[in-house]
Specification:
By secondary structure, the protein is an all-alpha fold. 66% of the residues lie in helices and 0% in strands. The structure holds zinc ion.
Length: 150
């Protein structure tokens, strides 16, 4: 009876330990915080894969893993790392494109907000001089350059 329970616990532990190795996607998405960005998540997952690779290397060096298992696991990890890298680059590219579009929108909004040059409106007759002038083109009144003397 105790042996059976012990065996069950051991099996459960083994499954628990093996699950992230067998399905890194599922494990990652279930523990994924809501506010994390896809790019940050990809980066994190890549780091996890590299950690696993390091562990694998270590365990192989320590003689805990057979050479054949080591090779196949290593190829799995490397393939996963390559796939994550490609996805990260795509996501990064998309983010960059978004940033470019955002910048263009911002520039257009700013240029639309620029008011017509009203610094050279004559205080005497109200004539809107179209170019920077010292004296009103209509009545000759001296115009204060507000852009230079705020
Ligand atoms: Zn004037």
């Amino acid at each position: 009876m105790f042996l059976a329970i012990g065996l069950l616990i051991a099996l459960g532990l083994a499954a628990f330990v093996a699950t992230p190795l067998l399905s890194p996607e599922g494990a990652a998405s279930s523990t994924l915080p809501v506010d994390i960005t896809p790019l940050a998540d990809l980066k994190r997952r890549r780091l996890v894969v590299y950690e696993n690779l390091k562990d694998l290397e270590f365990e192989f060096q320590a003689g805990k893993i057979a050479a054949q298992d080591y090779q196949s696991l290593r190829e799995n990890y490397l393939g996963e790392a390559a796939a994550l890298m490609a996805t990260t680059q795509e996501a990064g590219q998309m983010k960059e494109n978004d940033a470019v579009i955002e910048r263009e929108i911002a520039v257009r909004r700013t240029s639309r907000k620029i008011p017509p040059p009203r610094d050279y409106v004559c205080p005497h007759c109200g004539f809107e001089n179209p170019v920077p002038v010292k004296f009103c083109g209509e009545c000759g009144t001296r115009i204060t350059d507000r852009s230079r003397n705020p």
